[in-house]
């Protein structure tokens, strides 16, 4: 039995695969301590399967603890040790602005307060040591940190990616002298050039690690008490590691939750499609999108989260604040807006009947007939149509619109937010979305999928049977993975096959023995001399430099529309991952006899239409012409007029535009 539990902003999802069936559970997320909802969802899914914790073979977990702590700025009290003269590096940052035309738009405050920034008397340059680190300097820093009250410290010295000797001495001394303080050293977290990005990433690692350590410690104890195996944790790169390792490296799991959904999208794109799909995860709080090509999710080497840079390998997921709980509101200019503020899990949308009073996307869908007032959502949530109508009516009055017009407007505005972020990962990168299927998941995604697909010119939608809990299913199928990287700066005669192979072998040796049965996955980040950004080029462990250069130039032409035949190609970074393949579950359709049929009125293009409703998990071979609504256990798929749908052998509902 394989168990996956994913924590979202609104719901916590659990999936249990027993080799024959997929058992699911969904509970509201407990914001104060996410582990409470995690164990609650596990207990519920085990009841469904009539099993106990001892039968579970593997327990994979995706979380939002680190993401929330970073966005809400409630991590550990963190100090920074930097080379003398560079303690304000986080404050200075880069010269770019969050908004091109708002010269005074504020940037997020540094995670390290001025009084917690300490300077080390030392200096390493590109050619070696400029100022030696004195024998008493590590102890002086330890005394300052002890008096500061810091819970965690980031050590980031100049050029430590080339020569980490000074940084290694300071970090080792601090760990000996201050055992209660977490220490993150930049040569261990990110041995890369670009000082600001390295410092930002190391600081985030120090800021989050104590919090994650406490959370995963509680979860581990609760899992042991329930007879479950020790959890493994999804990292931002799309692979799982042991809970102890995840607790020591907080920056690596900031995108833990979305990464599980991306892995699940890759799995279903391979099983029910041609491997090419746009993953579209719309939950209660936000919407995450990703590109799956040939069954593999795209990855990136850097992201901004809450305005702060994390330069680590991670799945290329983009997020917008548009979920089922996103609140509709009137801006000062009189326009209807939706999100990014969300009703969350507590109190939730007005129709949840838990005290919410502001209109949300879920309330709008209920009034439009996409949801039924007499049905319960996953997690046992009963819907209150009168409360939804009252909330939407209040907004309608301020907009001088009718209730239904306002509800339709909320849905359209939310759809445009999601279309915008899908265009960021496709059109803005030279990718034609029309050659992909749209793969919606999350509790709210399938309701909006057809409208979003039509906007992008996509004519096929793949809705998994377990779409409401696909992120948890992806956790069950995740590889075990270890990542590392190095800045090499090779060009000209130095960019030889022997030199590249030697660098890869040295990187592999640093991860040797950590994963049995693992295979290397290497990405070479390259650019033309003089450029400021690199493009990733996948390759083997012993690549031909000429072939790498050719493939880089092809990638450059695809991204930017041109190539420079006279430009000098530079290999900047080598990224290596050792990957041990995870389980490959084969989702199956539901058995016959579990589908209930009914009819209700739903609104399409401003008109009420009597619409067939299929409630339950549809067996393979079921087909329907739009309009039709599939009410799955954890999600609702709306198929509009002009579309038709069939269910394949994996239980995926394949909806296509009628030709």
Overview features:
659 residues; Dna Ligase, domain 1; alpha+beta; Nucleotidyltransferase, domain 5; 5-stranded mixed β-sheet; Rossmann fold; 16 helices; 31% helix
Provide an overview of this structure.
With 659 residues, the protein is an alpha+beta fold. Among the domains are: 2-70 and 212-256, Nucleotidyltransferase, domain 5 (2-Layer Sandwich); 76-208, 3-Layer(aba) Sandwich (Rossmann fold), CATH 3.40.50; 479-580, 2-Layer Sandwich (Dna Ligase, domain 1); 596-657, no CATH class. It contains 16 helices and 37 strands. The strands form ten sheets. The protein has a ten-stranded mixed beta sheet, with helices on both faces. Strands 13, 14, 15, 20 and 25 form a five-stranded mixed beta sheet that branches. Strands 6-5-9-10 form a four-stranded parallel beta sheet, sandwiched between helices. Helix 2 packs across helix 7 (195-225), helix 4 packs across helix 5 (165-177) and helix 9 (256-272) packs across helix 14. The radius of gyration is 26 Å and the shape is globular.
Topology (SSEs and partners):
Blueprint: E1 2-7, E2 11-17, E3 22-28, H1 34-49, E4 58-62, H2 65-72, E5 78-83, H3 89-92, E6 117-120, E7 123-125, E8 128-131, H4 137-148, E9 152-156, H5 165-177, E10 182-185, H6 186-189, H7 195-225, E11 232-234, E12 239-242, H8 243-248, H9 256-272, E13 277-282, E14 287-293, E15 296-297, E16 299-300, E17 303-305, E18 308-310, E19 314-315, E20 318-320, E21 326-330, E22 336-342, H10 361-367, E23 376-377, E24 381-382, H11 385-399, H12 403-425, E25 437-441, H13 445-456, E26 460-463, H14 470-476, E27 479-491, H15 497-510, E28 519-528, E29 535-539, H16 545-560, E30 569-580, E31 596-604, E32 607-615, E33 623-625, E34 628-631, E35 636-639, E36 643-647, E37 653-657
Parallel strand pairs: 1-4, 4-11, 5-6, 5-9, 9-10, 12-27, 13-25, 32-34
Antiparallel strand pairs: 1-2, 2-3, 7-8, 11-12, 13-14, 14-15, 14-20, 16-19, 17-18, 21-22, 23-24, 26-37, 27-30, 28-29, 28-30, 31-32, 33-36, 34-35, 36-37
Helix pairs in contact: 1-7, 2-7, 4-5, 9-14, 10-11, 10-12, 11-12, 12-13
């Amino acid at each position: 039995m394989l168990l996956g539990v994913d924590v979202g902003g609104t719901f916590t999802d659990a999936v249990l695969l027993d080799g024959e069936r997929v058992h699911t559970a969904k509970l509201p997320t407990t914001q104060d301590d996410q582990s409470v909802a995690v164990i609650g969802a596990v207990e519920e899914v085990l009841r469904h399967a009539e099993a106990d914790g001892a039968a579970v073979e593997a327990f994979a977990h995706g979380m939002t603890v680190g993401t929330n702590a970073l966005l809400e700025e409630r991590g550990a009290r963190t100090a920074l040790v930097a080379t003398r003269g560079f303690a304000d590096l986080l404050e200075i940052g880069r010269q770019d602005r969050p908004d091109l035309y708002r010269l005074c738009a504020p940037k997020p405050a540094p995670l390290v307060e001025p009084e917690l920034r300490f300077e080390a008397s030392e200096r390493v340059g590109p050619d070696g040591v400029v100022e030696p680190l004195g024998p008493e300097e590590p102890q002086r820093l330890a005394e300052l940190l002890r008096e500061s009250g810091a819970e965690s410290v980031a050590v980031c010295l100049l050029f430590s990616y080339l020569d980490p000797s000074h940084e290694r001495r300071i970090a080792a001394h601090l760990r000996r002298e201050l055992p209660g303080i977490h220490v993150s050293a930049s040569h261990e977290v990110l041995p890369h050039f670009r000082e600001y990005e390295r410092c930002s990433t190391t600081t985030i690692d120090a800021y989050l690690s104590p919090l994650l350590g406490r959370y995963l410690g509680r979860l581990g104890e609760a899992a042991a008490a329930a007879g479950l195996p020790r959890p493994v944790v999804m990292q931002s790169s799309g692979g799982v590691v042991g809970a102890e390792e995840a607790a020591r490296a907080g920056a690596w799991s900031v995108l833990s939750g979305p990464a599980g959904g991306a892995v699940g999208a890759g799995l279903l794109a391979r099983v029910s499609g041609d491997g090419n799909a746009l993953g579209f995860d719309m939950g209660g709080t936000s919407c995450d999108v990703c590109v799956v090509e040939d069954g593999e999710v795209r990855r990136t080497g850097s992201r901004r989260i809450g305005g702060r840079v994390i330069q680590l390998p991670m799945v290329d997921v983009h997020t917008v604040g548009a979920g089922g709980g996103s609140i509709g509101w009137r801006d000062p200019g009189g326009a209807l807006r939706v999100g990014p503020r969300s009703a969350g899990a507590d109190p939730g949308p007005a129709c949840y009947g838990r005290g919410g009073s502001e209109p949300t996307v879920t309330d709008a869908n209920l009034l439009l007939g996409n949801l039924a007032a007499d049905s319960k959502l996953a997690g046992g949530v009963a819907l209150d149509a009168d409360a939804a109508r009252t909330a939407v009516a209040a907004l309608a009055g301020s907009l001088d619109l009718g209730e239904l017009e306002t509800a339709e407007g909320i849905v359209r505005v939310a759809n445009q937010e999601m279309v915008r972020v899908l265009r960021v990962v496709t059109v803005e990168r030279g990718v034609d979305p029309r050659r992909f299927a749209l793969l919606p998941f999350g509790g709210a995604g399938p309701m909006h999928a057809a409208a979003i697909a039509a906007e992008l010119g996509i004519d096929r939608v793949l809705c998994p049977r377990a779409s409401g809990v696909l992120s948890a299913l992806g956790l069950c199928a995740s590889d075990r993975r270890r990542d590392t990287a190095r800045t090499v700066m090779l060009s000209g005669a130095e960019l030889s096959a022997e030199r590249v192979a030697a660098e890869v072998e040295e990187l592999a040796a640093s991860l040797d023995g950590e994963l049995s049965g693992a295979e290397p996955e290497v990405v070479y980040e390259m650019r033309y001399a003089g450029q400021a950004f690199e493009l990733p080029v996948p390759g083997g462990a012993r690549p031909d430099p000429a072939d790498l250069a050719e493939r880089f130039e092809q990638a450059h032409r695809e991204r930017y529309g041109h190539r420079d035949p006279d430009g000098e190609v530079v290999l900047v970074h080598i990224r290596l991952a050792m990957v041990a393949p995870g389980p490959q579950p084969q989702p199956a359709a539901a058995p016959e006899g579990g589908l209930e049929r009914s009819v209700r009125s739903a609104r399409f293009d401003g008109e009420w239409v009597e619409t067939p409703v299929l409630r339950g998990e549809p067996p393979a071979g079921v087909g329907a012409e739009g309009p039709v609504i599939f009410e799955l256990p954890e999600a609702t798929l709306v198929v509009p007029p002009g579309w038709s749908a069939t269910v394949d052998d994996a239980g995926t509902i394949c909806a296509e535009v009628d030709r």
